[in-house]
Specification:
The chain is of the alpha+beta class and 443 residues long. It is rod-shaped and about 200 Å long.
């Protein structure tokens, strides 16, 4: 046992002596067991630690990613940035500079008015009072007025009064908001519609007019002239409607008057031919005459019957009575023939040969005359009513806010227009970029 212990101690001392470096000499190489132990403890200089290896791999990957990002930036993002600068930044900056430093000031003149109607007829119910039924007739005139203000006719009237080429000539370098001379009528009309604006509120019937110009006095003068022309148009429309209604009523009166005169002429001609004023009255007289003759006939027949009881038929009295009876019967028969033929067939006699035919014709003529008189009376009443309505329902232009004189230039809206231009350019550029990425992802 002592021997073994000595051997172990000697071996350990020899290993320790071997591991200790000798001054002035190169260090002895380490054994494999020492290197293995140092590697496990992370102190071996020949073995790279695991964590340090992983860190180096991640660093290499980050460098590769950084190089790929720089490469993609050169190819794709550079184009996007340059396109943003060229399509958005520079045009928006130029538009902003133009709006701030070059665009000329514009002044506006505003006025408010409405088309009214003098209507004396009041509403018959409460609903009509709140529904503004009387002003509903002027809505169409208001829309007509809007079209007239924005029409070529108004532009021509304004050009006759004012020199629009001088009024709206370009101020300085502002050629965008100015009007060039010698333009076509369509271009001038489009520029006129940009300089004038008219709005209509259907609920209240109020119209608002706004005219823009480079000088406030010029805008006010043009607005006044537009209102004058609008007033003249409304008056002409009112006069035309009034004249049309009156003309129609007068024509109806003339037709009714002609018809009445013809009916009266027909009655007069009939009276000249029949030589009686009223065949109905003549028929009444004839009926009374027949009744009287029949009464006499009855009396004579009674006398004849009485005389036959006292004398023979050859006596003079009997012959007189018989003669009187025969004459009265003949008169009765002739009077009855005057009243009618006694048969339903009138083909053998003229329509005016008897009282019945004359009464039929006279009643037809008299009915036509009475109807013509009534129609004539109604047409006269309609004419008078149309005249009153034309006077009471006259349309006019009520101006309750005269054209104003502006002291502050409110147009063009510099910051708003600049923002809208930038927003539009940004939207267009965004659509371009999204389309590019969509195509790129599909391919």
């Amino acid at each position: 046992m002592a021997i073994i212990k000595n051997i172990g101690s000697n071996a350990a001392s020899s290993d320790a002596a071997a591991d200790r470096p000798v001054p002035g000499k190169d260090p002895m190489p380490k054994s494999k067991s020492v290197h293995l132990l140092e590697g496990l403890l992370g102190k071996d200089d020949r073995i790279t630690p695991i964590a340090e290896g992983r860190n180096k791999i991640q660093a290499i990957k980050q460098v590769a990613k950084k190089k790929g990002w720089l490469k993609s930036l050169r190819l794709r993002h550079t184009v996007i940035v340059v396109s943003f600068i060229l399509l958005v930044a520079i045009p928006a900056s130029l538009a902003t500079l133009y709006m701030i430093f070059i665009a000329a000031n514009q002044y506006h003149s505003s006025a408010s008015f409405s088309v009214r109607s003098i209507d004396s007829a009041a509403s018959s119910d409460i609903l009509g009072m709140f529904s503004q039924a009387s002003s509903g007739n002027t809505v169409s005139d208001s829309y007509i007025l809007i079209d007239f203000v924005q029409s070529e006719r108004m532009l021509q009237e304004v050009e006759k009064k004012f020199d629009l080429d001088a009024i709206y000539a370009a101020r300085g370098l502002d050629y965008y908001y100015g009007m060039a001379s010698g333009q076509l009528i369509e271009d001038r009309l489009a520029f006129w519609r940009d300089m004038i604006n008219i709005n209509f509120d259907h609920a209240s019937g109020i119209m608002q007019l706004q005219v823009k110009a480079f000088e406030p006095e010029q805008a006010q003068d043009i607005a006044k002239f537009v209102i004058e022309q609008s007033d003249a148009l409304i008056n002409s429309l009112s006069a035309a409607a009034r004249d049309g209604v009156l003309k129609s009523a007068q024509e109806e009166v003339q037709v009714a008057e002609t018809r009445l005169s013809q009916a009266r002429i027909g009655v007069r001609e009939y009276r000249d031919q029949s030589q009686e004023v009223d065949p109905v009255e003549g028929a009444k007289l004839a009926a009374q005459l027949i009744g009287g003759l029949e009464a006499q006939l009855v009396q004579l027949n009674s006398d004849l019957a009485t005389a036959r009881t006292q004398m023979s038929d050859d006596t003079p009295r009997m012959r007189v009575i018989k003669a009187r009876i025969a004459s009265i019967e003949q008169l009765i028969q002739s009077e009855k023939q005057r009243l009618g033929s006694g048969t339903a067939d009138n083909s053998q006699a003229a329509p005016t040969s008897d009282v019945a035919g004359r009464i039929q014709k006279y009643e037809a003529l008299e009915t036509e005359r009475e109807f013509a008189e009534r129609a004539y009376t109604v047409s006269l009443a309609s004419l008078e009513k149309a005249r009153l309505d034309a006077g009471n329902r006259k349309r006019y232009l009520a101006v309750f806010i005269e054209p104003t004189l502006s002291q502050l230039a409110q147009y063009p809206s510099r910051f708003l227009n600049s923002f809208l231009v930038a927003l539009g350019l940004l939207f267009a550029w965004s659509v371009f970029v999204m389309g590019y990425y969509n195509i790129r992802d599909r391919t």
